[in-house]
Structure formats: C-alpha cells, structure tokens
Design brief:
The complex is a heterodimer of chains A (232) and B (1090).
Chain A lengths: L2 H37 L1 H4 L9 H23 L12 H26 L7 H23 L3 H7 L8 H20 L16 H24 L10
Helix pairs in contact in A: 1-3, 1-8, 3-5, 4-5, 5-7, 5-8, 7-8
Chain B lengths: L2 H26 L2 E3 L35 E7 L4 H4 L21 H9 L4 E7 L6 H10 L6 E3 L13 H7 L4 E6 L1 H5 L6 E5 L9 H16 L4 E6 L1 H9 L4 H20 L4 E6 L15 H4 E7 L15 E3 L3 H8 L27 H27 L5 H23 L5 H26 L4 H24 L7 H26 L5 H25 L12 H13 L3 H5 L1 H22 L6 H4 L18 H19 L26 H28 L8 H25 L9 H28 L6 H5 L4 H5 L9 H25 L16 H20 L4 H22 L12 H17 L27 H11 L1 H8 L3 H18 L5 H5 L12 H5 L1 H32 L6 H49 L1
Parallel strand pairs in B: 1-4, 2-7, 2-8, 3-10, 5-6, 5-7
Antiparallel strand pairs in B: 3-9, 8-9
The chains are: A mainly alpha (232), B mainly alpha (1090).
C-alpha cells in the first residue's frame, strides 16, 4: 500500500539526480566554451588577447557560447513538456533571432540610460549588449522559446517548473549582478587597461555567468530536498 | 501623540547631528584669517632706524641686498634623507643601499669642497603637507590651513603678502617654469612662465623634461632676477612607485644633473636654493604630519663665500618657513606682512669681521627687523580675529618690548659687548619661536579627540534614528516623556560642563558645550530606550530592509572613502539611482504585482491563484513609469559639470548663462525652450491640481495658483530676456534694462513669498460652500445616537461628511450629464495635504530657479517630473493598510535622498569651492551688496543647495502619495466593466476612496508615520555625513584630503543642515494643514448643529 508513493518518490528522486548530473555536464561544457574562446583564437589571429583586441574576443565568445547552447539544446532537449510543432520550426527560429536582436537593442538602451556614452563608443556598447544577451537571452530562448509570458513566469516568485528553469534563473541573475558589479572599478584611478568602458563590465558579465553556471547545479543539489516543482 | 512633539523630537535629533558636525569641524577644519595687508619698501615694520641703510643703494629696502639674483630649484617631495650625504666611512656598518640614498652627489661634493659656500638643512614643513599649502607657506611665510578665510573664495590665488608679489613690486623679473599650480596661486605675477600640467600623478617626465628644455637657455639669457623651477618628477614617482623603487634612483640622478648644471651657470651675485616642499611616507604619500612627511631638504649655495663656519657634522633642523624672511632680507626685499618665520642668522654674518662684533650686530639687526614685522602682524591679526590665546599674546608682547628696548639701548651705546648682543639675539629668537608655537597651536594641529567625539556623536545620532524609527510603530511607544527627560538631561550636561569649565577657568567654548548637551541627552535617551527595545527584538531588525536597499546604502557609505568615487559621485549616484529603480521594478515583478496573475499563471499547469495581493496597477503603466524615470534621470545627467580631476571629461555647455552665447538663432531657440520649461512646469502643477479638483475652490491660495504662477513665469521670462540680451539693448533703454533687472527678480521672489504666506494662512483648499447648500444630516449622523461631542465622535463624523460630499457631487454631475472625470467628484479633501505641499514646492522652486542659469530651468522641470514619476512608482509598491500603522519603506526614502544628491549634480554643482555659482549673489542685486555678507551668502547657498531643500521639503509627499494613487487604482479597476478583478472587488470597494483622509482619521498613526519618515530621511543623510567625517579623519594623511575629502565633508554638512531645516519646514506645513482641516471640520459640524 505505502510502497507505491514511496517508489514514485524514489523514482522522482533518481530522476532529479540524473537531471542534476546532466545540468552539471551542460554547464561545464558552457564554461569550457568560454575558456576555448580565450585560447583558440590566438592560434589563428596574431596579437590576440582578451584585453587588447577586446571586441574580437567579444564576438568570438558570443558565437561560441551561442553555438554551445544551441547544440546542447538540440542534444539534451530539456524542455520535453513544451509542445513543438515541426512545421513552425523556421518561423520559430526567425522569431528567436528577432527576439535576440531586440534584447540586444534593449540592453543597449538600458546601458545608455545607466550613463553609457550616447554617441561615442557605440560599437563597444552594442557588443557589450550582445554578449550580455548571449549570456541571458540565448539560454532563455533555447529553454523557453520565444515566449515572453514564459520568461516572465520564470523570473517571478514560485514561477519555476523544473531544475532547468531554476538554473536558468540563477545564471541569468548572476550574469546581471556580475555586469552590475563590473561597473564599479570604472571610476577608480588605477589606470588599468581593463578599467576602460566596457571591458570591466563585459568581464564582470562573463565572471557572473560562469559563477552562475557553477553555482546553480551546486545550489540545486544542495536544496534538492526542498525543491518541488509543479510539473503536472 | 501630538504632532508638535514629533517636530520637537526631530529638531532634537538634528541638534545631535549639528553638535556632532560642529565638534568634528572644530577639530578637523583649522581656520585662519587671511590678512591682505602688505609690507612696503618705504614703510619700515616698526620705529627705529633701518640698519645699514647706505645712501645710494638702489635696491635696498629694509636691509641692503646681499644677492641681486636667486635661483630657486623646488623639487617636489625632496625628503631630507634623499639629499643627505652618505658617509661611507663608518666602520663596521655595511652601507645600506636604498634607491633614494646618496643619489644627489653634487650636493655632497659641493659641501665637501666648498664648506663655506654651501649648507644643507633639514627643514621641517608644517602640516598639511600638500603642495599647494606648502607653496603658500614658502612664499608667504605663514601657516596655511585648509580654510584660509579670505575675501576671495572663488580662486586659489594668494591674496596675502608674499615673496613673489614683493619681487614683482620692486621691479624684479620673475621667471617660472614647472608645476601649473603656480599659475592659479600667482596669476600674472611672472614676467615669463612655462607651465606644465600637474594633474596626472602617473606621469613622471612631462613637467621635468619641459623645465629642462627651458632652464638652461633662460639662465644663459640673463633675462631674470628670480628664477623658479618646480620639478614634480620625484613626487609623482613617489605616488606611483613609492620611494623604494629603482625609478626613484633614476629620478634623483636626473635631479642631481640638474643641480650640477645650474651650479655651473651661477654667477657671483646669485644665490641658489634647492628645496623640497615636503617629504613622503614609506609608501610615497604625503599630506599628514608624520616625521617622514614633514622633513624636507633645504640646500643653499653661493659662488661667493656665505658662511663663517664650516657646516656642522649633523645638518641643522630649521622650520621651513624660516626661508621666507631670510630670502627676503638677503634679496633686499621687505619681509611679507604675514610671515611668522625666523631669519636664519647664520646667513647674515659677515665672512670677515670688518669692525668688532659687526657680524653679530648684523645678525641682531636682521632678527630685530624680523621681530618687528612679526609683532606688527600679531597686532593686526589679533585685532581682526580672536582665535589666538590672549594670555600667550600678552606674554609675547611683553617679551618683544623688552627685547626691542634692549636692542635700541645697545645701538645707542658706543661699546657693544658680544655677550649683550648674544642676549638680545636670544631674546628675539625666543619671541619669534614663541609666536610660531602659538600660531601652530591654533592653526595647524588636528584635535583628534574632537574629531573622534564628533564622529561618535554622528554615529550615535544615526543609531538613534534607526532605533526610534523601528520602535515608533510599536504600541508601547510614548515620545513626550522620553523627550522631555532627555532634554532635561541635556541641560544637566550643559550645567556640569559649565561648572567644570568654570572651576578649571578655561574659556567657554560653545561647540564643546553643545556637544556635552547632546551627549548628556543622548546617553540618557539610549539608556532609557535600549532595554525596552533590546529585550524583545533582535538587533538585526533595526537594519533597513529589504536587503538590496541595505546593500545600496552600504555601497553609498563605502563610496565616500575613496577619492575616485567622491570625484565621480555624480556618475555613481546616477548609477545607484538607476539600480534602485530597476530593483524596484524587478521586485514588483518578482512579487507578482507588476502583471496581472492571469499572465503569470500557466493555465495548462494548473497554477493556483497567487498568494499576493491583487495587482493594483497595470503592468505596462508601471513599466512606463520606470522607463520614463530612467529617461528623466539620464536627461538630467546631460547637465553635468566635470570635476577638475578628470581632464578627459567635458562639462556640459548648457550650464553657462545665455548671455555668454554668441549665435543669435541658437540663443533664441534656447530661450524659447527655457520659457517653455517654465510654462510647462506651471501648467503641470495647475493640471495636477485640476485633476484632483482643487482648482475649483475660491480660496486665496488657489487663486494665487491660477493667477500668481503665470505672473511669476512672466516675470522670470522677462528677466531672462533682459539678462541674456542686456548687451544688445539700445543705449536709450540701458537705464530701463538695468532697473528692470533689479526689480524683476525681487518681484518674483516677493510674489513667491506672498503665495507661501497665503498658503500658510488658508492651507485648506476645499470647496465647502457646495456641500453646505444641500445638507442631508440623516446620512451623516446615522451611526450616532446624539450630536458629536467628543473628539472621537468628530473623527468619525468627518469622513462621513466627506463621503456625503462626494455623493453630492456625483449626483449633481450625473444630473447635469457632465462628462467630467470621476476624480472631480473626489472632492478636494482627498489630497488636502499633498495639494498644499505641491503648491508650496512650486512656489519655492521659482525663486530658486531664478538664481540658476537660464537653461537649468529644464533640469528643474525634470526634477519635478522625475519626483512625480518616482512617487508613482513607489506608490505602486506600497500597500495601504487602512487603519494604520502607515509606513514609508526604506527604498522610498533612499531613492528620495539619492535623487536629491543626483539633482545637486545635474544643476551644475560639484562639491568643491571653485565651482560654486557665485553669480547667484548678483541676481536682483547687479551692483553688489555693499558690506553686508549674509544676503549674498544666503543667495549662493540657496543656489547651491536648491535640490536638497526642495527634496527635503517635499519629503512628506512620500507618505501621502500612495493614498493619492488609491483613487486612481480604484478607478482603473472600475473603468473596464466585466473585468475579473471587478467581480472580486467587494461591495465595500464601491465607496469612493478616502485617500488622505485616512491619515486624518488616524492621528496617532499619522504622527508616528511622520516621525518615522523624518527619522529615516535623517538617517540616510546622517550616514552620508558620518561617512564623510570618518573618511576625512581616517584619510587625513591622504594626498587628496584637502582637495576632495575636506570639501566634500563641508558640502555634505551644509546639505545636511539645509535638508534638515527643509524637513522641518515640510513637516510644519503638514501640521498647519492638519490643524486647518480640524478647525474646518469643527466649523462644519457646528454649522450642521444650527
């Protein structure tokens, strides 16, 4: 009599454990892609360094992270519950692209409102917006699709429905926090090359993203007993 | 709880802060009065013949010149041990090789080869050991403090008598090369000058290489009488690398070559002075008073023999300012008027005695001249200022008159004994040293005890604010007894202090007295308050919540400890404010208040209904508010003035007055925009009042808003037109223009004052007559059996009357098929408090606006707009708890305070003295003020702290606004019929919202809320001033202490005082309105009785 629910519970438990494992591996891959983006280009490009040819690195890092995210999404398929009609794949992809661009522009506007220069360094600011979109919007698009309502749901209290969404929440918030903290060294008079706009912020975003990738599986593992998702 | 006791309590808390600020200031900011008197060649410093006044000497002033020319090589931060010769012959001791030791070989060689020609001294600089203060000391011979209260606050130019001025006035050609600080200090004093930028501390070579390019050619050309070369490389090397870096060795070797080169080019009539203005610590910094910072090298050399004796084994220690009278007399100049240095007697001895004792006599006469000058200065100074000790002054005067009499007697007597001469010299030296010691005591020593005491008082004040603001909401809180007993204890503290001081016969210091009073009352208060708090609740409950706001406040606190962040505070405040706004939005969304739950729940997943309250506001509406707010802040940020420490930044060109613009068309466009901003401001206020129906009332303040505001706009616009185009006016109209530019600003100010007085006289803008016409008493008094007799009955009756009035209105509107908005029906009582506040703020803003440059009016428009948006945004997140207690959350208060300081920057201010808008003193007074100082000070202060004043006065709006938004919320819900929300709204929601009458209904909670609001605002401001005080005291040795931290502290202290006064004004206005509403309702009830 009582074996039934218990069995289901253990099943869920093991399911959750395997899910956490998968989550960890995917996150490790994402971190690996960022590390690759630092080292691989120096084989092909002369004078490549993260600080001096920062814009190049931004582009490369953005491409790498996007690619890894896409591949992982296709391989792991975490959001099995979302129904996908194959006929709309193309429109869906186009929609994702439009969302990505829109989020880039949105971030750009927010940076300018935050005090970034309006006319000078437009390219730098925009690429910063691109990399931040890569760390935040791309995972959202992969996991939730171009569905703003779902995004809003995930980023509100009691809104997450799976560990994937939970980790998405954590990585995204930590990316934002990293970016925010990255702005602090700018006024200091240390005269280091990484204090120039927007390098400290992009580095902050990257560190925040990586920290989120590391923290989220650990945090979920730590709190796996408390976490109950309303899956059905 | 009485509202007046709330006000009294806040005044007491502010008094604690004021006492702390005053105590800290008296220990930290040493002040001195600058005298503008000058010594002159013709006028000897005292009675008696001038010594050695030979006939036909062309350049002799007080004394015959010994040198006709001087080369002053000033090596910034040349510490004494940098120049000290290295004696390698000490046996048994391995020679230490440090990068800075023994690099100046040429000095060592000269000292060994020509011992009678050169001398090395260890000069002791007086703190503050910063370059500007040292330069001032090295030229005036005085002890510059941070605030040298002089006539000219706007520039750094030295107004005191100084060597450079004396050189120029006696027709010498002064050539300068090096640090461009001299350009600010001595504008136009040099016959030729090569300035190089000094701001970049990392740049070791620009200044030095620039000097080297010009030094030798200038020396060879001979077109100079005094040549000053100020090298910065050593100082910058210290700041960048510290003294223990190989780079320092290179730099010192370079300086060695320079000295070598200069020595080779010297002629016989020339004196070479090599001096360091201060030393540096082990880390290369300076500014404080540690041994390493104040010891500097001083090296004198002349190609002719200068000294009778060979140099002593260990170099003599002399105060740095002794160089000033010495140089002056050696060059045949009068000693600068304010000098308190003592001549170095060694340099006034003849190398060979021609007459017996002539050498000693020369020394004595130089000293006597010096003493006469110092005595004259003391006399003038003590007549103008009272900060010197009277007894000491008296003693010194007696000493001087005795020494002077001895000297005169000695001159008369034919046979001069060496011993008598020596006695006179000793007496004179004793006098001079006594004066110096006395001046140092009052001008140049931090009082750490006072600084610590002041900071402790400030911290205690902040803690008190926290404690009471949390405690006030608890039911067992009674303010009156606590307050009265505390005040009694404060008086007891004063009495004890007075008694102590009287017994010890010390001078009564009002600052100490105030601090004692504050301490006494505070200690008692904490002693009483703490047990009743601490037994029940944990300490953590005291801290501002929620966490992110606490974090933001901590960041703001910490930012005051970094000079970079203080310099970049305009940007940092902007950043924090944006973060706070985004945080508010995110928080609203997180808690599900931003979007209707329908959107958030996924129906397929079967989400239960959200636990939180029903969102009152449309999500897009709130989002729009946030974006608009960010936009406003960014636009206001366009009006920024750059701090001088960031050379790459460009100040906004829009801060200058329109009169300075050249293009006619652009000027007209800007003028149009400014007038447009004015019109928009007054129109927006009228619209807002109209929206709540206040404009219908025939009360005088309303009439003033209807007719007085446009008049003020007109007056301001006309004044701007005249001010910006005054030069283009035809000559016939010049007199008219001049007259109008005097009358118009005064007229606007007078209008604003009369408007404020009207508002104070009749603050309740309610259309009472309309309700009186149709009395329907039965609906009003139904719950009561009898007529209202007690206050409690009255409290209950008034809301009912109010509701009744609303019904009345609505009925009439429906009858006449009026299409007007429903809010009109929400009669004027609903926003009776905020209407008065907004009117007062507008009336206050106009005169303040007039004090600024024309284009700042756009910022004022933005100020009102962004406060309006922020209030709405905050109101969206504050739930209304109907019976009370009402609270204003921390994030609201922090955002308000942040916005005040952000607007301070966007109105073109910076917390440094040169950027104060001095022209504000001449608005309405184009001819100046004559001798009065308080009026220009008031005008300039009002200009500088306009934003702090406006935000502090408007602070109670934070409490009122959620109640105002209540009406909008309920209407929004009603507008779309058939809405899901509508169904859930119970029948009680059908009633018209009570809005601010809710506050009036609960007077106790209202008072507590006001107290809490005031305390929270004072806390947020208090931690800022505390941070400034701590930063200034901890970093008092920092390079930037006098340039960044001290001015920041002064500005923050001033803004705290202005803000607290503004807060009292705002609260008093609220109380006046409250009283008026009460009396009005009493009249209404009485009228119904009849």
């Amino acid at each position: 009599m009582s074996a039934g629910p218990f069995q289901i519970a253990t099943q869920e438990y093991t399911m959750k454990n395997t899910d956490i494992k998968r989550l960890l591996y995917t996150h490790l891959l994402c971190i690996f892609s960022i590390i690759l983006s630092i080292f691989i280009p120096s084989f092909f490009l002369d004078n490549f360094s993260v600080l001096e040819t920062h814009l190049t690195w931004l582009c490369i890092c953005s491409v790498f992270v996007t690619a890894v995210n896409l591949v992982l999404y296709l391989v792991v398929k975490p959001n099995t519950s979302t129904k996908r009609s194959s006929s709309h794949k193309v429109t869906r992809f186009l929609k994702c692209c439009i969302y990505f661009l829109m989020s880039c522009f949105l971030f750009h506007v927010i940076f300018v409102l935050y005090g970034a220069p309006l006319i000078e360094l437009v390219l730098e600011t925009f690429l910063f917006a691109v990399i931040l979109s890569t760390f935040t919007t791309v995972p959202c698009l992969c996991l939730l699709g171009p569905n703003v309502k779902a995004w809003l749901r995930v980023f509100s209290r009691n809104g997450v429905t799976s560990i994937w969404e939970n980790s998405l929440q954590i990585t995204t918030i930590s990316s934002f926090v990293g970016t925010w903290l990255g702005a602090f060294p700018i006024p200091l008079d240390w005269e280091r090359p990484w204090q120039v706009w927007p390098i400290s912020c992009t580095l902050g975003a990257t560190f925040g993203y990586v920290a989120g990738l590391v923290i989220s599986p650990l945090w979920i593992y730590w709190n796996r007993k408390q976490l109950t998702y309303k899956t059905n | 709880m009485q509202k007046i006791s709330v006000l009294l309590f806040l005044v007491w808390v502010s008094f604690l802060f004021y006492a702390g600020i005053a105590l800290f200031t008296s220990g930290f900011l040493l002040t001195r009065l600058e005298l503008t008197n000058h010594s002159s060649c013709q006028e000897p410093p005292g009675p008696g013949p001038l010594p050695w006044k030979r006939q036909g000497e062309p350049r002799a002033c007080w004394m015959a010149p010994r040198f006709s020319r001087v080369v002053l090589v000033l090596i910034d931060a040349l510490r004494f041990d940098f120049a000290q010769p290295q004696r390698s012959h000490i046996p048994g001791k391995p020679s230490v090789s440090l990068p800075f030791l023994g690099k100046l070989h040429s000095l060592q060689r000269i000292l060994e080869i020509q011992p009678h020609h050169a001398r090395l001294y260890q000069s002791k600089a007086d703190p503050p050991t910063t370059t500007m203060q040292r330069l001032k000391a090295l030229t005036t011979g005085s002890l510059p403090t941070f605030i040298d209260a002089g006539s000219n606050f706007a520039s750094y130019a030295i107004v005191e008598d100084n060597l450079i001025k004396q050189l120029a006035s006696t027709g010498r050609r002064v050539v300068f090369m090096g640090d461009d600080t001299w350009k600010d200090l001595f504008p136009g004093a040099f016959s030729q000058a090569f300035f190089f930028p000094s701001f970049n501390v990392k740049d070791l070579h620009t200044v030095d290489n620039g000097i080297l390019e010009h030094l030798y050619p200038t020396m060879d050309s001979g077109e100079w009488d005094a040549l000053i070369a100020h090298f910065l490389g050593v100082d910058h090397c210290g700041h960048k690398h510290g003294p223990h870096h190989p780079e320092m060795a290179k730099k010192l070797s370079q300086m060695d070559q320079v000295i070598q080169g200069v020595v080779e080019r010297l002629e016989n009539d020339t004196l070479l002075v090599v001096i360091g203005d201060h030393g540096m610590t082990k880390s290369g910094d300076h500014g404080g008073d540690s041994e390493l910072e104040i010891s500097a090298a001083l090296f004198l050399y002349s190609p002719t023999a200068l000294f009778r004796r060979a140099p002593p084994e260990e170099p003599e220690v002399v105060p740095q300012i002794n160089l000033v009278p010495t140089l002056a007399l050696l060059l045949g100049l009068p000693i600068p008027f304010g000098n308190i240095g003592e001549v170095m007697t060694e340099l006034f001895s003849e190398v060979e005695d021609l007459q017996p004792h002539s050498s000693t006599l020369a020394q004595a006469s130089a000293l006597h001249l010096n003493a006469q000058q110092v005595s004259r200065f003391l006399h003038t100074y003590s007549a103008a200022a009272q900060d010197l000790q009277v007894e000491e002054l008296h003693r010194l005067r007696n000493l001087f008159s005795k020494a002077s009499a001895d000297y005169q007697q000695l001159l008369q007597s034919p046979q001069r004994a060496e011993a008598a001469l020596q006695t006179v010299i000793a007496e004179l030296q004793q006098f001079l040293r006594g004066v110096r010691a006395m001046c140092i005591d009052s001008w140049a020593r931090f009082s750490l005890v006072r600084m610590a005491g002041g900071a402790a008082l400030l911290a205690a004040g902040c803690f008190l604010c926290l404690l009471i603001s949390q405690w006030a909401t608890s039911p067992d809180f009674y303010l009156c007894p606590l307050l009265l007993v505390s005040m009694a204890w404060g008086l007891a503290g004063v009495a004890v202090c007075v008694g102590l001081l009287a017994t010890t016969e010390l001078k009564l210091d009002p600052v100490v007295l105030g601090a004692m009073a504050a301490m006494g009352s505070l200690l008692h208060f904490l002693w009483k308050a703490w047990p009743s708090w601490g037994s029940k609740r944990p300490l953590a409950a005291l801290l501002p919540t929620p966490g992110p706001v606490l974090f933001l406040l901590l960041i703001r606190f910490a930012a005051f400890f970094s000079d970079s962040f203080v310099v970049a505070e305009a940007r940092a405040t902007h950043f924090l404010l944006c973060s706070l706004i985004l945080l508010l939005l995110a928080q609203l969304h997180w808690e599900g208040k931003l979007l209707p739950p329908k959107l958030l729940t996924v129906p397929r997943l079967g989400f239960s209904s959200p636990a939180g309250p029903i969102p009152q506001h449309n999500g897009m509406h709130v989002l729009g508010l946030g974006v608009g707010l960010l936009l406003c802040i960014r636009l206001a940020g366009l009006f920024h003035r750059c701090p001088e420490e960031t050379p790459a930044c460009h100040s906004s060109p829009w801060l200058s007055p329109l009169a300075s613009m050249v293009g006619g068309r652009a000027k007209n466009l800007w003028y149009g925009a400014c007038v447009g901003a004015l019109v928009a401001l007054s129109a927006a206020v009228r619209l807002w009042l109209h929206h709540y129906g206040n404009l219908k009332s025939p009360e005088p303040p309303v009439l003033f808003v209807r007719w007085g505001l446009p008049l003020m706009v007109l007056g301001t616009a006309a004044y701007w037109a005249l001010a910006s185009g005054a030069d283009e006016a035809p000559p016939r109209l010049q007199a008219l223009v001049a007259g109008a530019s005097v009358v118009l600003p005064r007229a606007v100010a007078a209008l604003a004052t009369s408007g404020l007085l009207l508002l104070l006289w009749r603050p309740v803008t309610v259309l009472a007559k309309a309700t009186m016409g149709a009395p329907r008493t039965r609906t009003i008094l139904t719950p009561f059996s009898g007529p209202p007799t007690s206050q409690a009955d009255l409290d209950y009756v008034v809301p009912q009357i109010y509701r009744h009035m609303q019904e009345e209105f609505r009925g009439r509107l429906e009858r006449t098929k009026c299409q007007g908005p429903l809010t009109l029906a929400a009669c004027q009582l609903g926003n009776v408090y905020s209407a008065a506040m907004v009117t007062a703020l507008t009336l206050l803003a106009f005169p303040l606006l007039l004090l600024h440059a024309e284009r700042i009016s756009l910022v004022f428009l933005l100020l009102f707009l962004q406060s309006f948006l922020l209030l709405h945004l905050l109101a969206a997140g504050i739930p209304i708890s109907t019976p009370g207690p009402f609270t204003v959350p921390w994030q609201a208060v922090s955002a308000w305070a942040l916005m005040a300081s952000q607007t301070f920057y966007s109105t073109g201010h910076q917390p440094v003295f040169p950027t104060i808008h001095w022209h504000a003193a001449f608005v309405g007074f184009p001819e100046g003020h004559g001798s009065s100082t308080w009026l220009p000070a008031l005008l300039v202060g009002a200009n500088t702290f306009a934003s702090h004043l406006l935000y502090a006065v408007g602070c109670p709006l934070l409490l009122f606004w959620p109640f105002l938004c209540e009406s909008q919320g309920s209407q929004k819900r009603r507008q779309p019929p058939g809405n899901e929300a509508e169904a859930r709204v119970g029948p009680e929601e059908e009633e018209e919202p009570l809005m601010e009458m809710r506050l009036w209904n609960a007077p106790h909670h209202f008072s507590v809320a006001l107290l809490q609001l005031g305390l929270k605002y004072l806390f947020v401001l208090g931690i800022q001033i505390l941070a400034c005080a701590l930063a200034a005291s901890i970093l008092r040795r920092h390079l930037m202490v006098w340039k960044v931290f001290a001015p920041k502290f002064i500005f923050e202290a001033m803004s705290f005082i202005v803000s607290s006064v503004g807060l009292f004004l705002g609260l008093s206005l609220v109380m006046r309105v409250d009283g008026a509403v009460s009396s009005w309702s009493r009249q209404l009830v009485l009228a119904q009785h009849r």
